[in-house]
Amino acid sequence: MPQLFRLDAGFQQYDWGKIGSSSAVAQFAAHSDPSVKIDEQKPYAELWMGTHHKVPSYNHDTKESLRDLIEADPVGMLGQGNVDKFGSMKELPFLFKVLSIKKVLSIQAHPDKALAKVLHFNDPANYPDDNHKPEMALAVTDFEGFCGFKPLEEIADELQRIPELRNIVGDEVSETFINNINPEAVKDSADDAKNKKLLQQVFSKVMNASDKVVVENARALIKRAHESPADFNKDTLPQLLIDLNEQFPDDVGLFCGGLLLNHCNLKAGEAIFLRAKDPHAYISGDIIECMAASDNVVRAGFTPKFKDVKNLVEMLTYTYDSVEKQKMSPENFERSSGQGKSVLFNPPIEEFAVLYTTFQDGVGTRHFEGLHGPSIVITTKGNGFIKTGDLKLKAEPGFVFFIAPGTEVDFIADDTDFTTYRAFVEPN
Q: Which residues hold Zn(2+) (predicted)?
C-alpha cells in the first residue's frame, strides 16, 4: 500500500454556497480535476475529503475509494492505536472540508456522544448516526459567523435597548434575567449554573415564540435597524440584521442568532473550535472545516429544515464567553523543521487536529516526522511538492493527499504563497 498518494475529493452544491468560480470549492475542484466544468450559475458549497459514505474520496491514480483502501489494510492506513481506539476498519474518525459560504447557514448545534445515541435511537430519520460532531473552522479568507452566546451583560443591555427582543422574551423573564445575572461568576460555580439557567429561559422564550409574534417583531426590528441604528449596542449589528433578513425574511434567527449569539470575525489563518452543544452558524467566507464524522444537526433558525426546538433548548451548554475567548490559540509543532512555519490547532477532542503550514518568509523544504495516524492534506494557495522517499508529488491549489501513519514527508515550496492544511488523528 503506498504511503503517500493524491486523492480526488467530491463536492456538494448546497443553496448557500458561493456561485460559480467565485467559490474556492469550485476553483479547487476544477483545478484538481480538469473534467469538472464550473457552472457559473450554480453554487459550490463544500469540498469533502475523507471516507464519509455520502461523498467518499478516491485514489487519484487507481480510482479506488479511500474507504476500500482502509478496509483492505486498516492497521497500515489508520495505525493500530486508532483501530483500537475508534473501532472502525474502513473509516477515518474525522471529515475534512472546504466551505465557500455566500448565504448564512442554519443556526445549529450538535449533540454530544451520549445525547447522539438517544436521538439516533428515537429519531433515526433526523439523526442518522450516534456520534457527536465537534467542529473546528479555520479561515482561508476573511470569515464571519455566529459562535456561542454573547456575554450576559450584552444580552441584558439588548433586552433594555431593543423592544422587539423584549416583546418576544416577555417582561417577566426579561426583568428576571436583567436583575439576577452575575457576569463575574466563576466558571462551574453555583452562580455560573444560575446564569446558564437564566440564559436558557431567555433562549426558550425566543425559540418557542409563535410565528405571528416572530414575524411582527422581526419586521419592527428591521425597521429599527434602518431608521434608528444608534439603538443597538454594536455599530455593525443593524447592517448585519438587515443583510440576514434579506436572505431569510422575518426569521427567528434574527433574534436567536443576531441578538443572542456572538458575531465572530476571523482573518485568514485564525481558527475557532465549536464544541458539542454550542450554538453557531457560518455567515460568509471561505473556511477549512474539520469535524468528527457525523451528520447530526439540531437546527434553530435561518433554515427551512426540521427544527427540533425541545431538544435544542434542553441540550445547549449555555456558555457565554466572548469571541476572543472562543478563538483557538495556535501551538508550535515541534515534530517539523526547516523552511516555512507550521502551527498546530489542537482542539480538546480525540478525533482530529489540524496543521497549518506556510512559507511566507521564503521558499524551501519543511520536513515532518511520521505521525502516529493518518492525515489528509490540501493545498489552498501557491505551488510546491510533497515528497516521501523517492516519491515526489506536485501540490497545487485544490490538490488533496493522503499520508499513511509513520510516513516522514517533506513539503517543498516553489513560491512563498505555498499554503497547506493537514488534518490528522493520533491515539493518545
A: 108, 110, 135, 280
Poorest-confidence range of 225-239, 266-280, 365-379?
266-280
Residue for cell digits 433574534? 255
pLDDT tens digits for range 213-248: 999 999 999 999 999 999 999 999 999 999 999 999
108 marked ligand binding residue: yes
CATH for 4-144 (3.40.710.10, 2.60.40.420, 3.90.550.10, 2.60.120.10):
2.60.120.10
Residue 333 CA to its chain's centroid (Å): 22
Nine-digit cell at 366?
519543511
Sign for the CA dihedral angle at 256, 257, 263, 268 comes to positive
Q: Is 3 annotated as a binding residue?
A: no
CA end-to-end distance (rounded Å), the chain: 25
Tell me yes or no: is domain 150-261+303-326 CATH 1.10.441.10. Answer: yes
Determine the pLDDT at residue 125. Answer: 74
The Cα 334–Cα 407 span in angstroms is: 16
CA 209, 211, 217, 222 dihedral sign is positive
Q: What is the pLDDT of residue 370?
A: 97
Alpha-carbon span 221 to 125, nearest angstrom: 35
280 is in an annotated binding site: yes
At residue 296, the pLDDT reads 67
Alpha carbons 101 and 410: distance in angstroms, whole number: 32
* 73 HSE (CA, 13 A, CB side): 11
Average pLDDT taken over every residue of the chain: 93
Tell the burial category of 354 from Cβ atoms under 10 Å away from its Cβ (0-12, 13-18, 19+): buried
Residue with cell 469533502: 48
| Average pLDDT score over residue span 352-379 | 97
By the 8 A CB rule, do 365 and 412 touch? yes
Residues annotated catalytic, as ranges: 299
